[in-house]
Design a protein that fits this description.
This protein is an alpha/beta fold. Helix content is 43%, strand content 16%.
């Protein structure tokens, strides 16, 4: 009899361990892991994605975890390997990730991303003047010039595209190459300090820094604004309906589309995104960006 009791206890213990393991695995599968390219200072990104994670978790009834990455390439890699389910990408990095991830979908973008602009800025101590048309970009030849990240759409890809159209190649800058600051905020600070005579960055980031008093108009000014193009967007993995539940991707998209300023938390999210609302977007919106990316060698 004692042997039977012991056998029963052992069986119950093994079943408990098995159940705990399965519960733990299930919980891990239920986590929606979100990320973003580190295009701005970490303080801003941490504030934004903390409140966004909370709102998405509440709206979707799933656990949401923000996983910061070190650079643009790391965001693309994390999406490609499946370590991130949903990522806020710029147009170029979104394409790089999507082309390596079968079934992934662009689900939404901000209202400002439909007609996005880069701006070129210059230090006031430089001899650089305001530029009236694209051909005048050739006046930047021989200047100390910096882009943002090497994989930034608004801080590198599109500015380089317009420079090339004006006949300016990367080797034409002082030192036979441009700088790469790593982020839009860094580009602004480097040009404002005089470390570089000119640079290119997101118009949105310029405006935010201007509003917050971080731009010194006596030191730095806008010399040119590019034509518009599609930019940032949310890219979702193609397996989310299987991982969570039927129509989960559609639910996720609709949560973003419903964001409005009547909700205190959603208003805060929109303000941190520099947007009034999110709108529908799709993969095809980035065909032009893909052509530019392939032309300058950022997409193989």
């Amino acid at each position: 009899m004692p042997r039977s009791i012991n056998f029963t206890k052992i069986t119950i213990a093994l079943l408990s361990i098995f159940n705990l393991y399965n519960i733990g695995s299930l919980k891990a599968e239920e986590i929606l892991r979100i990320g973003a390219i580190p295009d701005q200072n970490p303080e801003h990104l941490n504030r934004l994605y903390k409140v966004l994670s909370s709102e998405l978790s509440e709206q979707l009834n799933v656990q949401v975890r923000y996983k910061p990455v070190t650079n643009y390439a790391a965001a693309v890699t994390a999406f490609r390997t499946g370590n991130l389910d949903l990522v806020w990408f710029g147009a170029l990095t979104g394409l790089q990730a999507r082309l390596q991830s079968n079934g992934s979908k662009v689900i939404a973008q901000r209202d400002i991303d439909e007609k996005f602009h880069s701006i070129f800025i210059a230090n006031k101590k430089s001899s650089i003047q305001k530029i009236n048309n694209i051909n005048d970009l050739k006046t930047l030849k021989g200047k100390r010039f910096t882009f943002g990240s090497e994989s930034s759409t608004s801080g590198r890809l599109m500015p380089q595209y317009f420079l090339n159209k004006a006949g300016v190649q990367l080797k034409d800058f002082k030192g036979a190459s441009p700088g790469f600051s790593g982020s839009h905020d860094s580009t602004l600070m480097l040009v404002q300090s005089g470390s570089y005579e000119a640079g290119a960055l997101s118009e949105e980031v310029w405006k935010r820094n201007l509003d917050r008093g971080r731009v010194d108009p006596s030191k730095v000014f806008v010399i040119w604004k590019t034509p518009s193009y599609h930019n940032y967007h949310w890219l979702a993995q193609g397996n989310l309906d299987k991982k969570f539940r039927k129509d989960f991707t559609k639910e996720l998209k609709n949560v973003f589309l419903r964001f409005n300023e009547k909700s205190i938390k959603q208003k805060q999210i929109l303000e941190l995104f520099s947007a009034k609302k999110f709108i529908i977007s799709k993969n095809e919106n980035y065909n032009k960006i893909e052509k530019v990316g392939r032309k300058i060698g950022k997409i193989k």
